[in-house]
Amino acid sequence: MDGAAFTTLERANAQDVDRAVAAARRAFDDGRWSRAAPAERKRVLHRIADIIEERALELTVLGVRDNGTEFNMALKAEAGSAAGTFRYYAEAVDKIYGEVAPTAEDVLGLVHREPVGVVGAIVPWNFPLMIGAWKLAPALATGNSVVLKPAETASLSLLKLAEYCMEAGLPDGVLNVVTGQGSVAGEALALSMDVDVLVFTGSGATGRRLLEYSARSNLKRVYLELGGKSPNVVFADAPDLEKAAAVSAMGIFRNSGQVCVAGSRLLVERSIHDDFVAALSRHAGALRVGDPLDLGSQVGAINSLDQLEGNLGFVADATAQGAEIALGGGRILESTGGYYMEPTVLTGVAPDNRVFREEVFGPVLAVTAFDGDEEAIALANATDYGLAAGVWTGNLGRAHRMVRGIRAGIVHVNTYGGSDNTVPLGGVKQSGNGHDKSLHAIDKYLDLKTAWIQL
Ligand code: NAD
Would strands 344-347 and 324-327 be described as parallel, antiparallel, or unpaired? Predict the structure, then answer.
């Protein structure tokens, strides 16, 4: 936010992680939470949600000072969403049933759904509370113990959340937080022989390592939520092009583009290309970028100097490869210090340009023109990723064809971004293999056990 040191954190080593995992295992095995009545677990999860709501302002300010997200967005997307997630899974706790199998009459086949045991959760810095809650709430709801490793540059709100969990009555040892470096604490957690399931949100490079760590240790299940290079496809027949331009600008520039589902590739039908880019650039250029704690700021800070330099490197490479800068392209020097960047629009981006293919995770939009549905789908799918997409059209048949044709975990139609706990979020291709949110997420935290009983 201002580039200055805010606090210091413990740098957990492998022994610290082992102690946390052992505490989680003890808590799981003695049943203090894993065998608590569902109604009791439900009560505690609701209480956690209550406390998050009561202290939402304090929690949000802490998180914003740590990671730089604009306050107005963080209040809703971090504290607000985390409380909602705890409530959603609190309500699910006592609605998870086993099955009676349709066997022959002399046998009873029961399918129990049991907590997996110790869950390792590793999360990124862009929305630590929201993403942390997506993992913690269903893991705890189903009776597991958890060891959580927050990101180096965004640990504080999750440490505070752990305090709230204890205050709400979550028994000791059920939730353990280890702060520190990914390459040390994260690696130790992923290599642990006593972690049963690893749930992760972050980059593809780290995701790959986690799969290796699993193979090298106890073959723990690994669920990955990775990055994206999500296409936002605008057709000339969109019902309201001005609205499409405004929403598409926010679809990439909120939280300075540090959003996994950011619509970072704009595909525009050639006949409206110039007008649409002009409208979007007008909206983007009017966004107030600055101090995330200033309520007038619509876009906050870049998380770190490394991240800012990476963003600027993408712009330099893109122009060297033939793209043109229609808006922004540079650093903003704020009087507060810290790292800020102009919303940046690059046009004429060819599919072989690095900025078309690789995730920037910053406020950089790559624009490419297309002709017709087929080319739109081909360009949309010309990526290793498959997290999110958007389609703007007034033609219902075309909307359905695009939803079917684009390989992504979520396709927004005539909007971009936005969803709630009732629907899953997850990717296909190299965007990941697991889903957060919705009742589907619960399966990650449960094992199936069959009882085969001769009558
Ligand atoms: P990252 O992979 O660098 O770090 C994520 C977490 O992994 C951090 O806690 C880090 O400490 C840890 N880590 C790093 N190296 C590790 C290792 N060797 N072993 C174990 N843990 C390790 O990612 P990031 O820069 O924090 O986050 C940005 C990425 O996250 C982007 O690619 C973004 O798209 C993705 N993301 C995805 C979603 C989603 O839901 N799909 C949501 C938000 C962010």
Answer: antiparallel
For the chain, the average pLDDT equals 97
Cβ atoms of 203 and 226 closer than 8 Å: yes
What structural domains and CATH numbers belong to the chain? 14-226+432-454 (3.40.605.10), 231-413 (3.40.309.10)
Tell me, what's the pLDDT at 111?
Answer: 98
Task: Give pLDDT tens digits for 189-201.
Answer: 999 999 999 999 9
Q: What share of the chain is helix, strand, coil (3-state, %, to 5)?
A: 45, 20, 35
Percent of the chain with pLDDT over 70: 100
From 70, 78, 225, 334, active-site residue = 225
Diameter over CA atoms, the chain: 78
Q: pLDDT (tens digit, 9 = 90+) per residue, 13-64?
A: 999 999 999 999 999 999 999 999 999 999 999 999 999 999 999 999 999 9
Tokens 């998180």 belong to residue: 63
**Cα separation, 247 vs 393, whole angstroms:** 14
- Residues whose beta carbon lies within 6 Å of some atom of ligand 1: 122-126, 131, 149, 151-152, 182-183, 186-187, 190, 201-203, 206, 209, 225-228, 260, 359, 361, 387, 425, 427, 432
Task: Let me know if 225 is a catalytic residue.
Answer: yes
Cβ distance 358 to 385 under 8 Å? no
